[in-house]
Specification:
Layout (H helix, E strand, L loop, with lengths): L2 H36 L15 H11 L10 H17 L9 E4 L2 E4 L8 H22 L3 H32 L4 H7 L11 H14 L11 H4 L9 H26 L8 H8 L3 H27 L7 H35 L1
Antiparallel strand pairs: 1-2
């Protein structure tokens, strides 16, 4: 790999990491403002204009709070848990295509850290590792509420990962690739895949709520039953890592759904609009990236709307939905996709 491309990839890693932290920080502000609008309140308004400095104040508060380590806990694993959860939350962003190609100094760079041909498998592998951070943290706390929350989180994620993976299989059957960039590029001139896979998208969306521990599937940290769940014993920035990772997971999940089902950074008539405005290739890439982030913000707002609209499920309802509803629907979706593709193949042969 040429040195200039390597340096660009390292710079892109740093930018995506900073952007992820920034989105996670201001998603907390956005969620509090969103909830305030729904509940006829003002929301954060003291720290800076419109409360825009509230995430910074919260971050400083997290760093300044006293570090607490339970006497009977496993100290090493107690610290490893939130660190691992945060690491896995950031790792999925490496295979997401954030935009098209940029040409600088005669060298072409793409706005993706790495384009591996098994990007979807990598994504699922990393997501499945995230549960270890929760399990380690809950077990190392030596607290029954923490352990129950960790057990809930692990069974919930394992259950919903199956339906999520099966929903993606139907999409892979259509696209013939596991590369996220290729899937996005296939939606360049055509219709977004949500049109062809509405059921698969709906299953993936519901599973994304469960995978990110967002309401109404936040049974792992159910305050009314488990105090705080797996992070009951955590304080200071270790608690902050758990909370930040949840919002980063929401951000990354939104980016994945946009890439798979809503065209990624593509938008309708992008070539015609670029020609009409006289945009260069780099100018179009910048607009594509802004459009991509606009779609992500739309999904993040949807996550927030669901949290402040729907009540929390009971745990038996959560598991029944995953095993008795979503799993059969995902299998039916694969079957229907196969039948349609087979029929279209016969028509093509005739």
């Amino acid at each position: 790999m040429p040195i200039e491309i390597l340096l660009f990839k390292l710079l892109l890693c740093g930018i995506i990491f900073v952007v992820s932290l920034g989105v996670a920080a201001y998603a907390t502000w956005g969620e509090r403002k969103f909830a305030a609008v729904l509940q006829d309140r003002v929301g954060p308004s003291r720290a800076g204009p419109f409360g825009l400095l509230q995430p910074i104040a919260d971050g400083v508060k997290m760093f300044m709070k006293e570090e607490m380590l339970p006497n009977k806990s496993n100290k090493f694993l107690f610290i490893l848990g939130p660190s691992l959860f945060m690491l896995t939350a950031c790792m999925v962003s490496t295979v997401i295509p954030w935009g098209g190609d940029l040409t600088l100094g005669g060298v072409t760079y793409n706005l993706q850290i790495t384009d591996i041909n098994i990007g979807i498998l990598y994504m699922f592998g990393v997501v499945s590792l995230g549960i270890y951070g929760i399990m380690i943290g809950g077990w190392a706390s030596n607290n029954k509420y923490s352990l129950l929350g960790a057990l809930r989180a692990s069974s919930q994620m394992i259950s919903y990962e199956i339906a999520m993976g099966l929903s993606i299989i139907a999409l892979v059957m259509m696209t013939g690739t596991l590369s996220l960039r290729e899937i996005v590029e296939q939606q360049n001139a055509g219709v977004s895949y949500v049109v062809y896979q509405p059921l698969g998208f709906l299953i993936f969306l519901i599973c994304a709520f469960a995978e990110t521990n967002r309401a109404p599937f936040d049974l792992a940290e159910c305050e009314t039953e488990l105090v705080g769940g797996y992070h009951t014993e955590y304080s200071s920035m270790k608690l902050g890592l758990f909370l930040f990772a949840e919002y980063i997971n929401m951000f990354i999940s939104s980016a994945v759904m946009v890439s798979l089902y809503f065209g990624g950074y593509n938008f309708p008539f992008q070539t015609e609009i670029a020609e009409a405005l006289g945009l260069s290739a780099n100018g179009l890439t910048i607009i594509q990236t802004l459009i991509f982030f606009g779609k992500i913000v739309g999904f993040i707002l949807f996550f927030m709307w669901v949290r402040w609209t729907l009540p929390r499920f009971r745990y038996d309802q959560l598991m029944s939905l995953g095993w008795k509803v979503l799993l059969p629907l995902a299998l039916v979706n694969i079957f229907i996709t196969g039948i349609v593709m087979w029929a279209l193949g016969l028509i093509g042969n005739n």
